């Protein structure tokens, strides 16, 4: 029998060493993997110098795991690198709810990323399109000649389409017509940014020579709407008060971009930490998701929640361009361990997990918002950070945290000044105690 995620029940209550023993066993990690996770085995500066420029050091982020996540019937322990309290607890708690009462499924629509070749101030747009359309197969063949390894794996450039854009923006540009070629490429397991940029730049001299027009920019688009991932949650027999509350929360986000921005930020609370943990370009995914959310001309939520009879059904749809090869995904030791923890074999699997966890995180936040409010769960877990921020020392943190939770329950909020009072009170009590004995 396979290992079931329920084996990891209550891991948040365990000491670090005991938690790691269970996770090592569950994910088949080596002792070296654990050293990477704990930070004992660090990236050498010499390696970091290859990642970025002018290296001065590191910025460690904690990485935790969300448990109970079951996607398409498969248990996945999800590593998440993030600085914000309560995200991981919320994903775990919500995944537990879904696991016990419903299903979480994912879908993939398309596999093509987009590279743009722009011809600004075009002189004869229709003639240019005609020339390039006639040589479309040639353009595709030249492209694929630049990326033979990808073609061998079944990927490569599959199509080229033409977009007519006009800009009547009052600028001094000599003409107001533009043509943009979209080079559509299947990047297999790579995110594909570097390879599509190279293909577009490689095509530029051919396009210019054949059309006698001047190419402007050659660059990928992060609005990857040819590679959409969807997730669907169904929870059976939901308390109607909770279910309709969540449905109403979605209607608010649909009606108001101010709310939609925060709604989608909640979804990204689930997605970004996985992208960071796996060494992926989270800015690219964020940009794509926000652009997709605004594709109608108005910013919308990327998830939708509705009651369906007694069940609550939620869906997410978003472009998700991620990789498991290329970039630093195979160079960053923590990213390698994170992939191993999820037993990921393809970039699609990783994108499915991101979509599913984004939807789950959104559900967790909406459930809290439409019932007890977000403050209680979030601040309960944030209390130790506040204790540290007001100067509590290691041996005082737990006591301050417990007191702050009592304050939260009584007064419904915690402030820094209230936390300072609590700390002073504890210290005062301790001084009095030691004076008495
Ligand atoms: N650390 C890690 N996981 C935790 C946790 C913690 N401190 N507290 C709860 N969990 C997870 C565990 O998986 C737990 O199951 P387990 O004990 O079998 O392992 C599961 O949640 C349920 O625990 P429970 O104590 O019943 O949680 P709860 O119902 O009191 O919920 C929150 C606590 C924080 C999860 C909930 O209030 C919440 O989801 N709030 C919304 C927070 C949010 O959306 N934050 C986003 C940023 S604002």
CATH architecture of the largest domain: Alpha-Beta Complex
What is the CATH topology descriptor of the largest domain?
Answer: 3-hydroxy-3-methylglutaryl-coenzyme A Reductase, Chain A, domain 2
What percent of residues adopt helix (DSSP H or I)?
40-55%
Major sheet attributes = 4 strands, antiparallel
What is the H/E string?
Answer: HHHEEHEEHHHEEHEEHHHEEHHHHH
Considering the chains and any ligands shown, give keywords for the structure.
single chain, 437 residues, alpha+beta, 3-hydroxy-3-methylglutaryl-coenzyme A Reductase, Chain A, domain 2, Alpha-Beta Plaits, Helicase, Ruva Protein, domain 3, 3 domains, four-stranded antiparallel β-sheet, 10 strands, globular, binds coenzyme A
Overall description:
The protein has 437 residues and is α+β, with helices and mostly antiparallel strands. The protein is globular. The longest helix has 23 residues, at 347-369. The model has no long low-confidence stretch (mean pLDDT 94). It has 3 domains: 64-109 and 227-371, 3-hydroxy-3-methylglutaryl-coenzyme A Reductase, Chain A, domain 2, CATH 3.90.770.10; 113-221, Hydroxymethylglutaryl-CoA reductase, class I/II, NAD/NADP-binding domain (Alpha-Beta Plaits); 376-436, Helicase, Ruva Protein, domain 3, CATH 1.10.8. It has helices at 16-27, 31-38, 45-51, 87-101, 125-134, 136-146, 148-152, 193-211, 240-255, 257-277, 282-293, 333-342, 347-369, 374-389, 394-411, 416-436, and strands spanning 63-71, 74-81, 102-109, 113-119, 156-166, 177-186, 218-221, 228-235, 303-308, 311-319. Coenzyme A (COA) binds at residues 9-10, 12, 67-68, 84, 86-90, 92-93, 96, 269, 364-365, 368, 374, 377-378, 381.
């Amino acid at each position: 029998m396979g290992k079931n995620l329920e084996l990891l029940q209550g891991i948040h209550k365990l000491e670090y060493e005991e938690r790691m023993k269970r996770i090592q066993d569950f994910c088949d990690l080596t002792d070296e993997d654990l050293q990477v996770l704990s930070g004992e085995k660090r990236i050498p500066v010499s390696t970091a110098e290859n990642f970025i420029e002018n290296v001065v050091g590191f910025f460690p982020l904690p990485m935790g795991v969300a448990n109970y996540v079951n996607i398409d019937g498969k248990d996945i322990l999800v590593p998440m690198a993030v600085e914000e309290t309560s995200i991981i607890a919320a994903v775990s708690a919500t995944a537990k709810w879904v696991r016990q009462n419903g299903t979480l499924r994912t879908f993939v629509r398309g596999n093509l990323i987009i590279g743009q070749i722009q011809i600004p101030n075009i002189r004869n747009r229709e003639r240019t399109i005609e020339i390039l359309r006639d040589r479309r197969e040639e353009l595709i063949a030249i492209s694929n000649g630049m990326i033979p390894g990808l073609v061998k794996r079944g990927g490569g450039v599959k199509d080229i389409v033409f977009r007519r854009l006009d800009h009547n923006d009052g600028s001094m540009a000599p003409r107001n017509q533009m043509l943009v070629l979209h080079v559509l490429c299947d990047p297999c397991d790579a995110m594909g940014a570097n390879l599509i940029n190279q293909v577009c730049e490689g095509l530029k001299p051919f396009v210019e020579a054949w059309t006698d027009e001047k190419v402007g920019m050659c660059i990928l688009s992060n609005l990857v709407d040819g590679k959409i991932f969807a997730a669907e949650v169904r929870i059976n027999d939901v308390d109607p008060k909770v279910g309709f509350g969540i449905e109403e929360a979605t209607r608010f986000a649909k009606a108001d971009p101010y709310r939609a921005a925060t709604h989608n930020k909640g979804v990204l609370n689930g997605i970004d930490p996985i992208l960071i943990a796996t060494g992926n370009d989270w800015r690219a995914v964020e940009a794509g998701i926000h652009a997709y959310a605004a594709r109608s001309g108005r910013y919308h939520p990327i998830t939708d929640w509705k009651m369906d009879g007694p069940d609550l059904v939620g869906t997410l749809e978003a472009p998700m361009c991620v990789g498991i090869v290329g970039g630093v995904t195979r160079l960053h030791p923590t990213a390698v361990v994170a992939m191993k923890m999820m037993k990921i074999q393809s970039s699609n699997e990783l994108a499915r997990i991101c979509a599913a966890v984004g939807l789950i995180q959104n559900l967790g936040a909406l459930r809290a918002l439409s019932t007890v409010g977000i403050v209680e769960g979030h601040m309960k877990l944030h209390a130790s950070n506040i204790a540290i921020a007001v100067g509590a020392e290691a041996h005082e943190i737990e006591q301050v945290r417990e007191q702050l939770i009592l304050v939260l329950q009584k007064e419904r909020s915690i402030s820094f000044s209230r936390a300072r009072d609590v700390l002073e009170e504890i210290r005062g009590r301790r001084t009095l105690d030691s004076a008495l004995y």
